[in-house]
Design brief:
Elements lengths: L2 E2 L2 H17 L6 E7 L3 H16 L3 E7 L5 H13 L5 E4 L9 H6 L12 H8 L8 H12 L8 E5 L6 H10 L3 E5 L6 H5 L4 E4 L17 E4 L3 E2 L5 E2 L4 H4 L5 E2 L6 H19 L4
Parallel strand pairs: 1-11, 2-3, 2-4, 5-6, 5-7, 7-8, 8-11
Antiparallel strand pairs: 9-10
Helix pairs in contact: 1-10, 2-10, 6-7, 6-10
This protein binds guanine.
């Protein structure tokens, strides 16, 4: 019988621990959140992040910029925030409007305030196995696997998706835990052949019903990162849950699996950043 991994419950226990830690700090951690434009999904993500901060004793400062903001104006805001000692973390919500280079913007964040762990310096530290910040979604997934005592070492881990936010850093972290990693993407021929080999299958594509029952090995662990909507407007992942769940040993639901843990790891990173900056 499959165990459905409860990201909401685990997130609650992390939240309590983070709140207890910030409560005894003389200077609370502070996060600057930058939202450019009016993408409704991004607006929701940013509001959730601010709510999480408030619940955990972390100060959040929102910078909502108009959709026609110039790249140079965003870069000078980042320069200002990089220099402010009271700001510990700087997060620029992605995607950015056309005409602003995400690469340039990410590279302009002070790596010691890069709570998303997207800056090339932090990506390099992750790749060499000595990270100062862990990327939020992959770190949340590792925390879930650990909470359910799921062994990674020696397991064949198949990552479906190769984004900079999830697929690539997830693969590096699983490799760091001594998994054997296969990364699949849109040009991978015969995806089912590879997913069927997975002891641990992580999918982050954004296409509902991509992973069907016949694509999963009996007893596999399945982690679904995606947030799609079904025909009734309800959230669903990449996994055809009712078909896949009975074959698995552990599986994450959507919603209530990876999502809450991703949110927690931003708080963890903001606390780490505050400590890096000498706050206690
Ligand atoms: N857009 C989608 N996911 C993320 C994330 O983890 N961080 C930021 N900054 N933007 C995102």
């Amino acid at each position: 019988m499959a165990v459905i991994m409860d990201g909401r419950a685990l997130a609650r226990s992390y939240k309590e621990r983070i709140a207890a830690q910030t409560a005894v700090m003389s200077h609370p951690p502070a996060l600057a959140v930058i939202l450019v434009g009016n993408d409704p999904a991004s607006r929701t993500y940013v509001t959730n992040k601010e709510k999480d901060c408030a619940e955990c004793g972390i100060i959040s400062k929102e910078y909502a910029l108009s959709v026609d903001t110039k790249e140079e104006d965003l870069l000078s805001l980042l320069e200002k925030l990089n220099r402010q000692p009271e700001i510990d973390g700087v997060l620029v919500q992605l995607p950015l409007p056309a005409g602003i280079s995400e690469d340039k913007v990410i590279a302009a964040i002070n790596p010691s305030k890069d709570v998303d762990a997207f800056h090339p310096y932090n990506v390099g530290l992750i790749a060499t196995g000595n990270p100062q910040f862990l990327p939020c979604t992959p770190a949340g997934i590792l925390a879930l696997l650990d909470a359910y005592s799921i062994e990674i070492a020696g397991k064949h881990c198949v990552m479906v998706g190769r984004s900079n936010i999830v697929g690539k850093p997830m693969s590096l972290l699983l490799l760091g835990r001594n998994g054997t990693i296969t990364i699949c993407h849109s040009q991978t021929p015969d995806l089912p052949h590879i997913t069927r080999m997975a002891d641990i299958l992580v999918t982050a594509v954004g296409r509902r019903d991509l992973i069907t029952g016949s694509m999963v090995k009996e007893g596999a662990v399945v982690v679904d990162v995606a947030m799609n909507r079904d025909e009734n407007g309800k959230f669903c992942g990449d996994v055809l849950f009712d078909e896949v769940m009975p074959k698995t040993s552990f599986i994450t639901p959507v919603p209530g699996g990876v999502g809450p843990m991703t949110r927690i790891m931003l708080l963890e990173n903001t606390l780490t950043a505050a400590r890096l900056h000498g706050k206690a």
